Amino acid sequence: MSKGLIVTDLRVSVEGKEILKGVSLVVEPGKVHAIMGPNGSGKSTLAHVISGRPGYTVTGGSVMFDGVDVLELEPEDRAALGIFLAFQYPVEIPGVTNTTFLKTALNAQRKARGEKELDPMGFLKVLREKAKALHLPDDMLKRPLNVGFSGGEKKRNEMLQMAVLTPKLAILDETDSGLDIDALRIVAEGVNAQRSPERSFLVITHYQRLLDYIVPDVVHVLAYGRIAETGGPDLARQLEKTGYADYTGSAA
Amino acid sequence: MTSTTETVDTVHDLTGTYKYGFVTDIEMDVLPVGLSEETVRFISARKKEPDWLLDWRLKALALWKNMEEPTWGKVSYPAIDYQGLSYYAAPKSKTDGPKSLDEVDPDLLDAYEKLGIPLKEQEILAGVVAVDAVFDSVSVATTYKAKLEEKGVIFCSFSEAVQRVPELIKTYLGSVVPQGDNYFACLNSAVFSDGSFVYVPKGVRCPMELSTYFRINAQNTGQFERTLIIVEEGGYVSYLEGCTAPQRDENQLHAAVVELIALGDAEIKYSTVQNWYPGDAEGKGGIYNFVTKRGVCRGKRSKISWTQVETGSAVTWKYPSCILQGDDSVGEFYSVAITNNAQQADTGTKMIHIGKNTRSTIVSKGIAAGRSDNTYRGLVRVLPGAEGARNYSQCDSLLIGDRCGAHTVPYIESRMPIATIEHEATTARISDDQLFLCRQRGLKPEEAVALIVNGFCKEVLQNLPMEFAVEAQKLVGISLEGSVG
Amino acid sequence: MTHLPMTPLLQDYAKISASLPGVHDSRVATLRAMAAESYRTQGLPHARVEAWRYTRLKDLETLPFSCAAALSDVSEPVEGAGLAGAVLRIVLVNGQYVESLSSQVDIPGLAVGCLREALDAGDDAVIQALDGGGADFAGAPLAALATAYMDDGVVVRVAEGVSVAPLVEVVALATVDVMPHLAFPRFLLLLGAGAEMTLVETFTGPAKGVYAVNAVTDLCMGEGARLNHYVLQAQGAEATHVSLGRCAVPAKAHYEGFVLQLGAKTARHEMRLKMQGVGGEAKLHGAYAVRGEATCDTTTVVDHIAEETITDQVFKGILDDKSHGIYQGRVHVHRNAQRINGNQLHKALLLSRSARVDCKPELEIYADDVKCSHGATVGELDDDQVFYLQARGIDVVTARALLLRAFLGEALDMISVDAVRTAFGAHATGWLDNARGVTS
Ligand SMILES: Nc1ncnc2c1ncn2[C@@H]1O[C@H](COP(=O)(O)OP(=O)(O)OP(=O)(O)O)[C@@H](O)[C@H]1O
Ligand SMILES: [Mg+2]
Fold first, then answer.
1. pTM score, two decimals?
2. pLDDT in tens, C232-250
3. In terms of CB atoms within 10 Å, which of A229, B153, B164, C146 comes out highest?
4. A200-226 per-position pLDDT tens digit
5. What is the A140 CA–ligand 2 centroid distance (Å)?
6. Residues B328, B356: contact at Cβ < 8 Å?
7. C275 to chain B, minimum CA–CA distance in Å?
8. Would the CB atoms of A108 and B436 count as touching at under 8 Å?
9. What single DSSP character describes residue C5?
10. What is the ipTM of this complex?
């Protein structure tokens, strides 16, 4: 049984339009992979399909995580396996406080994994610590999830959720966009702090700047529904200069 | 036919009519079906009521005979055969009910489990045992009673109050909901079985929530409950009605009346969690809950606050209301109504502003799932003397699935220029994004819906006393089970 | 207990029904019979009819109105709403189309005809379009009565794709006779697919004298058509005015409506919109101002039948003296009508302690992917605002007038056709100049 994320020849369409046209990718435990690529190339689509968002039709290929075919699983079962998605556009839920939301989610995952529920006081302590590390004020924990949060606050709040839920695979979909310079560093530090031999990351971004902080092991270019190129950290730096002009729709 | 009903029939044949006080010593559990003057006389006699109360009931019956069942609600149900019902049942003897929890509907037990109701209490709710058989109820009751009586608070069954404080009953019964007020209230006035009575003297803050006590003592008050709460000047009481657990119940029609009287500077907080049997998924069975609840703020600066969480019953028809008579008095209505499967709810409030600077707030959250229909119907009326009156209403509906209906029907009537009325209503659904976010974080669809709906209802739920709020939150989830695929 | 409906006003029916137009057309005869029957069973509206909860037509109940066609000898030109610019005016006097008072029509693709002739000729398009394209009389006993007595009226046809440049104004003028008279102006618009026009309906009559008007307007829009539909109700102070407008909005069509009610002793204007084509859009706004002991009822019924339809409503009202204002608005989203937007707002100001307003916005929703809202406020002029203006040196009378005008202005500004906005604004200002709250 092979550990980590293995995407093989994944084909996905939305409303009859093919978006991913055979994507293959292997993220081993402990590794950080970055995905870059032009707008509309299918990066979010890939993230959504791995995490099980409804609305996509998988027409071919497979997604395995720690030896499990995740395409067969409900989103919550994938979450319990340890797959976490930081949303490009975080969602608001009025009336449900950040704390309640996180506690409910964490306990649901623990329950699904056959672990004991956390005691409320212990949970609060952990939550406060992690919020502090991300420079999120306490009152934000009491506010309804993402309601009235600024763009940057929402993104940092996604990172807080990641910190609390401690996933095995974290997919960060443009978590850096909308962040000011200080916040970017804070978020990156948060991610780096979580890097460990068991945990892998799939970091979707448009900017080299994030990758200066979170140095990836592998960089992929996703263009027109395919992985057009794969390389090391240098590839990202090179893209910063040249752009995506080399990757045209007719490639391959 | 049971032997008891035969006895009644025989007695009836021999004497022609029931005479006042005549049958009281006959042992019987259930009165034969049918509604007539005799039925009313029988009930009144069983309860050893004074003549004036019998007359009061008879007047109600006479009025009721000339009334029509209301049809304006957005509810439909098969015609009720009022002559086919039995109007009096003495507290159930042990032989009717299940002998042990093993004989109880597993769904019911499942619900208790989820709510975390203690086993002993489960047995009461399911009707396995009588209250006093389980709890050390004598001591519980006496501790409470002693504490209350020390403060001069009277809290007892309605029947007991008729004997103990007849003057108070005579003064206030029907003073807020007169006999002829509406069809169901009128029926209740003629045949009410029992209920609760609360009296809080001047300046007294009732030292405890009148809740736990109620839960273990006021079972089997029957289908025609009558509650009367009087709070004298400066007094305060918080009263909790009902129970978060579905109760085993054989009565299909419930027509209760609740009257609240708050004198100057007095405050009454009345919370209800109603989770009666809603019928099965196909809409068979279930309770018809046709309730009249009304409070009057009689003095200056008095306040009445209704909070309700309605998740049960097949049909709900209920409008807890406030008559804001005293200047500066305040009325509040906080409501969560959840309907699933084939349930129908037509519920809301009436705020009648009479006094100067009276204020009212309405917050209603309606959630419809399955094939249910959920209607908010509310009236805000500002009368010519109500200078400076203010009302704010917020009515939000949430639809879950595309086969249900959510409706909002506010009536706003103002005859006072120096008054402000604001009403807002919205309708929406749980977005796919919210649902996916929750599932991505590990929640099952049903848990996700429960979480999101609890958030939607938060403003209302947080008005419930703590111990109720927690159970009510769980109830929100339970009552929406099966609403998402 | 059953209540026999009150059905005065049918007394002329037996006598004249045989001479009404279209007697030989079985479709017209059937519709008429259904209408008469519907009125017979419904009768004049009473308090137990939910759709008429707040409005009684007292004069119609008590005074001996004649329903027979009343000819009149109006000869002086008819003013209408006072619209500036190019206006094509069509005049009805007591419900009868009077060609001599109406403008000459020579616009290609536009035809104006007389309803009586269309009925007698068995015109298919016209007959099919009557009464919402079916005997739609539920909750509309007076529309039923109007169809029972249906005699004359105007039919306007606009051919496919034609954009009518001048404003078309239909003036329904009433006169006062010795005997109180009930007129039935009826207007029918057949607007072809992709056609565009601006229609103004003006209801007016003598300032003094008792009369009644019971109008029915049916607007049939083709796909992708655009219609601006503005109604001015400026009846005399002793008049009873009842009008019902119906419009079905098909796919991609666009309807903009505005209703300004300023007159009559008792008035009820009801507009029913059926959003029955995907992508249809409607705006339905209005304002009313009432004084004396008058009653003014504005009712809207919006049915979202098709997916992806949008409606928006804003209504404003001012109530003075002992007047009574009513706004009822129902938004009904039918099963499977997904992706709907329906918004509604009603604001009323009470200027007097004896005035009264009743408001009943209503949402009835059977689909889940829907965003609907309504809001309602009732109150008085904001003292802070008055003071603010005074503090800037404006006297209290002027300040109040300004604020009231601005209050109605928020609704009036929704009228997208300049000439109409200006004319309606002038009528509203004219009313306000006489408002007690302003002059005292
Ligand atoms: N529900 C949908 N309906 C129609 N098209 C869709 C849908 N979801 C995604 N697409 C299309 O799929 C393509 C890929 O979208 P995706 O969001 O995956 O791009 P992306 O690489 O994340 O872009 P960006 O860098 O702008 O975030 C786009 O052309 C998008 O318009
Ligand atoms: Mg993206």
1. 0.86
2. 999 999 999 999 999 999 9
3. C146
4. 999 999 988 899 999 999 999 999 999
5. 26
6. yes
7. 19
8. no
9. P
10. 0.87
